[in-house]
UniProtKB/TrEMBL annotation:
The keyword Acetylation does not apply. This is DC1 domain-containing protein. It comes from Anisodus tanguticus. It comes from the Eukaryota. InterPro entries: C1-like_sf, DC1. Signal peptide: none annotated. Pfam families: C1_2. Residues 81-124, 197-253 form the DC1 domain.
């Protein structure tokens, strides 16, 4: 009989089978009444009767004007991107990938008990549009469930706030000539934030690298080291402290929105595919040359076949590992 503690995560969401069993065994699902900043209970469901209205920095629609989802009488919702099954709000400590925006999250979420579909709470309850958002106040932003069309050979478009790829839910500028877009999680950020790991208020710097005076001190934004990840970034928005020389990437600030900071979870880093391919190719060449040196008496053709096969097996083992 399989030991439950040894069960590995299932599917792209990263939610374990044990967690999904806990979800399925819940007799009744309910939604939290508390606003996003007050949802602090870990590891369990929070009782309520109606869905929470997510307030972005600017949300022009009242709570009953959301067209993206329908609230059921039993506390679940039916989201327009997953209309075949209802979604219930739960809180689990397991890391998951949001089926909407394709980004990581943990803690509070809307989940389907029939299939592996989960949404951040702010993705599930996003309003259809945002007016005068502090990151793009000149135009209205419209919610889109699907990302911009990606042509063959061209990389995914990127969020103008965190500079990560936009592969799912986004808020995009309704003006065709304007390409501004951002993740729902980034839309939850504002121009001034209080990050838990820093004692002072942080203010977002103007977009771009050329900063003249103000909080940026006239320094090049690309040369600023983030106090959270200790890295430099040449793009994306940056928060700066008015009191001390502390900077925070918007990419790192998102951890206080998606639950990762509260649960002490670092998002898994994606491997460098180019570097991995180069290492595998180098290993194949090294093994091939070594085999040639050892096997002159065996015939070059035979050694060529053996070493290419060995290199492929080694590459497969690395991918599996």
């Amino acid at each position: 009989m399989m030991n439950r503690t040894s069960i590995k995560p299932l599917g792209r969401s990263g939610t374990s089978l044990v967690a999904m069993k806990r979800l399925n065994n819940t007799s009744s699902f309910s939604l939290a009444q508390a606003p996003v900043s007050a949802a602090k209970t870990k590891g369990g469901n929070q009782p309520s009767s109606t869905p929470t209205y997510i307030e972005f920095p600017t949300s022009p629609q009242p709570p009953d004007d959301h067209t993206g989802y329908h609230a059921n009488h039993n506390g679940t919702i039916v989201h327009h991107t997953h209309s075949k099954h209802p979604l219930a709000e739960i809180t689990l400590s397991e890391l998951f990938t949001c089926s909407g925006c394709k980004e990581f999250g943990t803690g509070r979420r809307y989940a389907c008990q029939d299939c592996d579909y989960q949404l951040h709470h702010f993705c599930a309850l996003s309003p259809p549009s945002l007016k005068a958002h502090p990151f793009h106040g000149q135009h209205q932003l419209v919610f889109h469930a699907k990302p911009k069309q990606v042509k063959a050979g061209i990389a995914w478009s990127r969020c103008d706030v965190c500079c990560k790829s936009t592969k799912g839910f986004t808020f995009r500028c309704r003006v065709n000539s304007c390409n501004f877009q951002m993740h729902p999680c980034c839309a939850m950020l504002s121009t001034e934030i209080k990050f838990p790991n820093h004692p002072h208020q942080l203010k977002v710097l103007p977009p771009g690298n050329a900063l003249l005076g103000g909080a940026g001190g006239g320094h090049d934004q690309s040369g600023m080291v983030c106090g959270e990840c200790n890295k430099k970034r040449s793009s994306g928005r940056v928060y700066s402290c008015k009191v001390c020389d502390y900077h925070l990437h918007a990419l790192c600030a998102k951890s206080m929105i998606n639950g990762l900071q509260e649960y002490g979870i670092k998002p898994p880093e994606k491997p460098n595919m180019l570097g991995t391919a180069a290492r595998l190719a180098s290993q194949v060449v090294i093994e091939f040359i070594g085999g040639l040196i050892e096997g002159f008496g065996e015939g070059v053709g035979e050694v060529l076949i053996q070493n290419i096969g060995r290199g492929r097996r080694s590459s497969n083992r690395r991918r599996i590992a």
